[in-house]
UniProtKB/TrEMBL annotation:
It comes from Epilithonimonas hungarica. The lineage of its organism: Bacteria, Pseudomonadati, Bacteroidota, Flavobacteriia, Flavobacteriales. This is Uncharacterized protein.
Protein backbone atom coordinates (compact mmCIF):
# COMPACT_ATOMS: atom_id res chain seq x y z
CA UNK A 1 0.00 0.00 0.00
CA UNK A 2 1.58 3.28 -1.03
CA UNK A 3 1.26 6.68 0.53
CA UNK A 4 -0.17 9.80 -1.11
CA UNK A 5 2.14 12.00 -3.15
CA UNK A 6 3.11 15.28 -1.54
CA UNK A 7 4.38 18.36 -3.37
CA UNK A 8 5.95 21.00 -1.11
CA UNK A 9 6.15 24.49 -2.55
CA UNK A 10 9.14 26.14 -0.84
CA UNK A 11 8.99 29.20 -3.09
CA UNK A 12 7.21 32.53 -2.78
CA UNK A 13 5.37 31.89 -6.05
CA UNK A 14 2.45 29.85 -7.38
CA UNK A 15 3.48 26.57 -8.99
CA UNK A 16 1.69 24.05 -11.15
CA UNK A 17 2.90 20.81 -12.61
CA UNK A 18 2.53 17.18 -13.52
CA UNK A 19 3.48 13.84 -11.98
CA UNK A 20 4.12 11.18 -14.66
CA UNK A 21 4.14 7.44 -14.06
CA UNK A 22 6.01 4.52 -15.61
CA UNK A 23 2.97 2.71 -16.94
CA UNK A 24 0.08 3.79 -19.15
CA UNK A 25 -2.29 2.16 -16.65
CA UNK A 26 -1.62 5.02 -14.20
CA UNK A 27 -2.87 8.42 -15.30
CA UNK A 28 -0.83 11.53 -14.55
CA UNK A 29 -1.56 13.75 -11.57
CA UNK A 30 -1.69 17.52 -12.07
CA UNK A 31 -1.10 19.91 -9.20
CA UNK A 32 -1.46 23.58 -8.33
CA UNK A 33 0.20 24.87 -5.15
CA UNK A 34 0.10 28.30 -3.54
CA UNK A 35 3.35 29.82 -2.20
CA UNK A 36 4.89 28.06 0.82
CA UNK A 37 2.14 25.43 1.08
CA UNK A 38 1.72 21.73 0.27
CA UNK A 39 -0.40 19.68 -2.12
CA UNK A 40 -1.28 16.05 -1.49
CA UNK A 41 -2.76 13.51 -3.88
CA UNK A 42 -4.94 10.56 -3.18
CA UNK A 43 -3.10 7.27 -2.85
CA UNK A 44 -1.48 6.26 -6.10
CA UNK A 45 -1.44 2.48 -5.73
CA UNK A 46 1.69 0.77 -7.05
CA UNK A 47 2.48 3.28 -9.80
CA UNK A 48 6.22 4.14 -9.99
CA UNK A 49 6.94 7.83 -10.63
CA UNK A 50 9.24 8.67 -13.55
CA UNK A 51 9.00 12.47 -13.58
CA UNK A 52 7.76 15.41 -11.52
CA UNK A 53 7.73 18.68 -13.46
CA UNK A 54 6.74 22.18 -12.36
CA UNK A 55 6.10 25.65 -13.77
CA UNK A 56 6.63 28.66 -11.52
CA UNK A 57 4.72 31.93 -12.04
CA UNK A 58 6.76 34.95 -10.94
CA UNK A 59 6.35 38.69 -11.55
CA UNK A 60 9.12 38.33 -14.17
CA UNK A 61 7.32 35.58 -16.07
CA UNK A 62 6.73 31.83 -16.02
CA UNK A 63 9.77 29.59 -15.49
CA UNK A 64 10.21 25.85 -15.91
CA UNK A 65 11.84 24.08 -12.99
CA UNK A 66 14.47 21.42 -13.59
CA UNK A 67 12.30 18.28 -13.21
CA UNK A 68 12.84 15.32 -10.91
CA UNK A 69 13.50 12.35 -13.21
CA UNK A 70 13.76 8.67 -12.25
CA UNK A 71 13.62 5.25 -13.87
CA UNK A 72 10.68 4.60 -11.55
CA UNK A 73 10.59 5.49 -7.88
CA UNK A 74 8.14 4.71 -5.09
CA UNK A 75 9.27 7.85 -3.26
CA UNK A 76 6.28 10.10 -2.60
CA UNK A 77 7.42 13.48 -1.23
CA UNK A 78 8.88 16.14 -3.53
CA UNK A 79 9.78 19.79 -3.11
CA UNK A 80 10.05 22.73 -5.50
CA UNK A 81 12.91 25.02 -4.47
CA UNK A 82 14.53 28.15 -5.83
CA UNK A 83 18.29 27.77 -6.35
CA UNK A 84 19.07 31.21 -7.83
CA UNK A 85 17.12 34.16 -9.15
CA UNK A 86 14.54 32.74 -11.58
CA UNK A 87 16.10 29.24 -11.36
CA UNK A 88 14.05 26.44 -9.79
CA UNK A 89 14.21 22.66 -9.43
CA UNK A 90 12.10 19.75 -8.21
CA UNK A 91 13.85 17.54 -5.66
CA UNK A 92 13.00 14.82 -3.22
CA UNK A 93 11.83 16.67 -0.15
CA UNK A 94 14.28 17.41 2.62
CA UNK A 95 14.04 15.52 5.89
CA UNK A 96 11.86 17.78 8.05
CA UNK A 97 12.27 15.93 11.31
CA UNK A 98 13.82 17.96 14.07
CA UNK A 99 16.54 16.07 15.82
CA UNK A 100 17.07 17.17 19.38
CA UNK A 101 20.61 17.32 20.59
CA UNK A 102 21.52 14.98 23.41
CA UNK A 103 22.52 16.70 26.63
CA UNK A 104 24.31 14.63 29.21
CA UNK A 105 23.48 15.68 32.73
CA UNK A 106 25.65 14.82 35.66
CA UNK A 107 25.51 15.80 39.28
CA UNK A 108 29.24 15.13 39.60
CA UNK A 109 31.08 18.01 37.92
CA UNK A 110 34.53 16.44 38.47
CA UNK A 111 35.58 14.11 35.68
Amino acid sequence: MSSPIEIINSTNYIISGEISYMTVFCSSHYFFVKPNTNWESEKRGICPIVQVSAMIRTPRGVFTAKPFVSIGTAYSSFEVIQTRENVFCVTRSRNKTNKKSVILESSDHFF
